[in-house]
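S.,

Sequence below, as promised.
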Amino acid sequence: MVQKPSALRRECYYISLVRIDAAVAEPPTLAFGARIAARRKAGLPVLSLGLGEPDVETPAHVIEAAHRAMRDGYTKYSAAAGLPELREAVAAKLARDNGIKAEAGEVVVVPGAKNALYLAAAALLEPGDEAVLLTPGYVSNKPIVMLAEPSCRIVEVPLRAPDFALDRTALTAAIGPKTRLLIANFPHNPTGRMLDAADAAFLAGLLRDNSRLHLISDEIYEKLAFGDRPMVSPAALPGAADRVITVNGFSKAYAMTGWRVGYAHAAKPLAARILRVHQQLNTNVAAFTQKAALAALTGPQEHLSGLVARLRGCREAYAAFLARNPGLAGPVPDGGLFGFVRVGASGWTSDAFCSALVEESGVAVLPGASFGPEWDAWCRVTLCGEPAGFASALDALGALAARGPR
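The prediction came back faster than expected:
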């Protein structure tokens, strides 16, 4: 005889569905990509300045390393924490490039930096905890926290416009005895701001002053710095290392967005907790893609100078665009892939503006509402494309913003 589920089991199942429905929607960036793909399939012109990936190909030596690894049999299960040689290379990179005292045993290789963010949150958060998120910020941060611990109270702290610096007073006030987690992303998505030494020291001070607080430092855009500010990793600062989880990967610096290889670095006890969650959810990252990531990290790096030079050229064009359009507002980015521009002074909402821009000019940018309703007057612009095309796209954006909605 088949037994019916108990009332408790039905109730728990219902609650879990409600929580998932509340936390999970299609990421705005993926919905954006699908819309652009449909437009192209219909034969309509489009210049996409909305997605978060470099407009270059994965370096050839990285692709060849994956081919070689597959031919050499790296197609089976592998160590859950990652191939030992890749973990050693990541630890060496963290020490060399970021000043972080890292060991291979503190590194967990996972399927992308987004996955690392979730695993770190799941390993840290407990019922009744609070998490602080900076806004605007990476669109998946909030769903990640809600999925990792549905009962977690999320406190959103706006960055201080127009330069999007940390609001130290507001951030200090947001952190209390229940605050377990703060997520920071520098170079910043979507504004392109770099974390300066003073703000990094402030974050380290918050950790020292709040014994339960942990910081997830999302550094996925680290290598794409093209302004005057150097990269600063909070885990390198005195007294901060034990409660900073550094998240990074290969998607942006090595144009490997589709390969899904990232990593988390944390103190050994926390790394072990991250690994336990990772083992149950992911088992391991495909070994041949790890071999490709190893080649990316240890092989030729010449492509980086070319990529940064392209981004710097786009930054200069973007700065000139802002200067000749006084009705627009926004910072000139110092790193990452994006600019964040306010287009709503003439009455536009971001969704209406972006829809009109792609329909009238074939230029696609991401609505600021993707980052929360308070940013509905803003749009995110990806710094990519050939110089002439990029400049033309910016001109179309400026003209539409000045005209206002009809």
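Residues 142 and 285 are 25 Å apart (CA to CA).

Coffee later?
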